[in-house]
């Protein structure tokens, strides 16, 4: 039996209509990946399977400075105690070899006075290396070996003290401590500036001591594949900043907005607002300069992933003039406001400049409509308040009006009403 044909033609059925409907581009969800630079500036990179560990011992000083404080203190304490014990054993051997430990010796000069046991030798070792000198134990000119040991221990103690003091100074004066007061905005924004789409971020310095020769670099880090099929997991692309075009350094006296114009040479040229949310790129901001007080070069870093880039926003002004002094309100450092911005990419904006004009016109119309609605609401509220006030006055006037008085006068036929 043949199947009966449908009354509705196939081209007008649901499958045919669905096939002819224009489909919107479907973007895959962005996979949560580990960011290359954390918000606090630390590098999210783990070194594994390093076979040549001896390279770290070739530069012991830098290794000690890079270690955490607890490991550094443990190493220094272990070094001091080990040196004291080592030279205590040496002093005990000197006394033992000279026969100072014998109780029955008489009328013989000792190499070190009052060294009768290992405990006394350990105390004398501490006195020599730390130069305490309580006076109960001292070296004599009887033994040349003891004099040589004294010289060696003094030299070793000075070396240990120099390394310890230098390491502590470098750890306390590290440049990353100064970077704690160099701040970045929580979010980056993309908006229209000078009729071009721009990527913008805000930087600031909380201290009054300035950063000399400050310079800012922007980089885009993303995973790319070359035409030959080579996969580059961390591909770093420099972004040209407008502030670096005029001069090589920044005068970081007050918070500044650093922006990058998205042009043909920018890796953000083909990204629209929707594609940006689905991309896995990461924008790194690097601020470098010389600390004015110490003269040490410092570097502060942060990064922005696609979720932290707000499309169609602009930073609010935070610098105001109050009584002849410029004041900075850091409570609004990262605040942004929405502005009229095309949702298309910079490439589409260059190909169709009318998109920007239409967007600005729509924004102006919506702004005027909002102002009209606000004025009409204010006018209605004032009219309602005026009507309510007039009604109250009328009621008050009615209450204050004198009531009519009625009098009854006798007549022939009865009482008559007189008002």
From TrEMBL:
Give TM regions.
71-94, 146-169
Q: Which residues form the Potassium channel inwardly rectifying transmembrane domain?
A: 37-174
Which InterPro entries does this entry report, sorted A to Z? Ig_E-set, IRK_C, K_chnl_inward-rec_Kir, K_chnl_inward-rec_Kir6.1, K_chnl_inward-rec_Kir_cyto, Kir_TM
Which residue numbers delimit the Inward rectifier potassium channel C-terminal domain? 182-352
Under which name does UniProt file this protein?
A: Potassium inwardly rectifying channel subfamily J member 8
Query: What positions belong to coiled-coil segments?
Result: none
Q: Enumerate the Gene Ontology biological process terms.
A: nervous system development; potassium ion import across plasma membrane; regulation of monoatomic ion transmembrane transport
> For this protein, what is any one GO molecular function term?
ATP-activated inward rectifier potassium channel activity
**A cellular-component GO term for this protein:** plasma membrane
The residue range of the signal peptide is none
Which portions of the sequence form the region Disordered?
364-395
Cell compartments where the protein resides? Membrane
Site annotation (Role in the control of polyamine-mediated channel gating and in the blocking by intracellular magnesium) points to 161
Record family assignment = Belongs to the inward rectifier-type potassium channel (TC 1.A.2.1) family.
Q: Which reaction does it catalyse?
A: K(+)(in) = K(+)(out)
């Amino acid at each position: 039996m043949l199947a009966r044909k449908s009354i509705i033609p196939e081209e007008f059925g649901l499958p045919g209509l669905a096939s002819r409907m224009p489909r919107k581009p479907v973007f895959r969800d962005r996979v949560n990946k580990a960011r290359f630079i954390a918000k606090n500036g630390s590098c999210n990179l783990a070194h594994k399977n390093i076979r040549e560990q001896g390279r770290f011992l070739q530069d012991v000083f830098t290794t000690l400075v890079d270690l955490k404080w607890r490991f550094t203190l443990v190493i220094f304490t272990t070094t001091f105690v080990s040196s004291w014990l080592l030279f205590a054993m040496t002093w005990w051997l000197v006394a033992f070899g000279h026969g100072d430990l014998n109780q029955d010796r008489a009328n013989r000069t000792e190499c070190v006075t009052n060294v009768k046991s290992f405990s006394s030798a350990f105390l004398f070792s501490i006195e020599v290396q730390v130069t305490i000198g309580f006076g109960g134990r001292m070296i004599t000119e009887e033994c040349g070996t003891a004099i040589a040991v004294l010289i060696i221990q003094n030299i070793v103690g000075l070396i240990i003290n120099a390394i310890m003091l230098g390491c502590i100074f470098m750890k306390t004066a590290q440049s990353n401590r100064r970077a704690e007061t160099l701040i970045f905005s929580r979010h980056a924004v993309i908006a229209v500036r000078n009729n071009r789409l721009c990527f913008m971020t805000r930087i600031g310095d909380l201290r009054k001591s300035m950063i000399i020769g400050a310079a800012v670099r922007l980089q885009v880090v993303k995973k790319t594949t070359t035409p030959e099929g080579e996969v580059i997991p961390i591909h770093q692309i420099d972004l040209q900043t407008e502030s670096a075009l005029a001069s090589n350094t920044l005068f970081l006296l007050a918070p500044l907005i650093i922006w990058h114009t998205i042009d043909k040479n920018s890796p953000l040229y083909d990204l629209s607002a929707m594609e940006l949310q689905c991309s896995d790129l990461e924008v790194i901001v690097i601020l470098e300069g010389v600390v004015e007080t110490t003269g040490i070069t410092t570097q502060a870093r942060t990064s922005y992933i696609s979720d932290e880039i707000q499309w169609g926003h602009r930073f609010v002004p935070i610098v105001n003039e109050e009584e002849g002094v410029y004041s900075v309100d850091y409570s609004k450092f990262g605040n942004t406001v929405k502005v009229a911005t095309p949702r298309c990419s910079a490439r589409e904006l260059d190909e169709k400049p009318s998109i920007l004009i239409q967007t600005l016109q729509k924004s102006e119309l919506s702004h005027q409509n909002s102002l009209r609605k606000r004025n009409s609401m204010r006018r209605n509220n004032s009219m309602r308040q005026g009507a309510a006030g007039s009604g109250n006055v009328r009621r008050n006037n009615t209450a204050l009006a004198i009531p009519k008085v009625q009098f009854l006068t006798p007549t022939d036929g009865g009482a008559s009403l007189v008002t």
